[in-house]
Amino acid sequence: ALAENLAGKRVVLIDDSIVRGNTSGPILRLLRDAGATEVHVRVSSPPIRHPCFLGVDMATYPELIAHRLSIAEIQHYLGADSLAYLSLEGLIRSTRSNGDHFCKGCFIGEYPVDNEAVDKEVFEMR
Q1: Residue 93 contacts by C-beta under 8 Å, 6 or more apart in sequence?
Q2: Which residue among 34, 80, 86, 88 is buried most deeply as judged by most CB within 10 Å?
Q3: Beta strand 82-85 with 38-43: parallel, antiparallel or unpaired?
Q4: How many domains does the structure of the chain reveal?
């Protein structure tokens, strides 16, 4: 049924985020194997270039694909025809605020607390 719907089609794959890059690549291959002629990826967050030290179970620097690769390199790695992320400015605009009320650490590496003194386990329930 997938091939019947995708054969010869251009597809836009929308993902909430790309952290390690190990989910989107296999999905793109499935879409291409089903006959999609083009696969374009749009991500509804800015690139995640820094880990979360505040309790979100997220990858370390070496595991973060956007920390290691440029957007063009990620596009090539995933096998996408195009790749675009929501900008940080676009994310902030979407909240209808100046962005001062939420953490942007995983996007820009600036945390609301000193991450040198923070161990993520401190924030996790035991």
Answers
A1: none
A2: 80
A3: parallel
A4: 1
Q: Cα–Cα distance between 64 and 50 in angstroms, integer?
A: 7
The per-residue pLDDT string of the chain (126 residues; one tens digit each, 9 = 90 and over) reads 689 999 999 999 999 999 999 999 999 999 999 999 999 999 999 999 999 888 777 779 999 999 999 999 999 999 999 999 999 999 999 988 888 888 899 999 988 887 565 555 555 544
Exposed e or buried b per residue across 33-49, where buried means at least 16 C-beta atoms within 10 angstroms of its C-beta: ebebeebbbebebbbbb
Task: Report d(CA 26, CA 39) in Å as an integer.
Answer: 12
Q: What is the pTM of this model?
A: 0.85
Task: Give the structural domain span for 66.
Answer: 2-123
Closest CA to 47 of 63, 73, 30, 65: 65
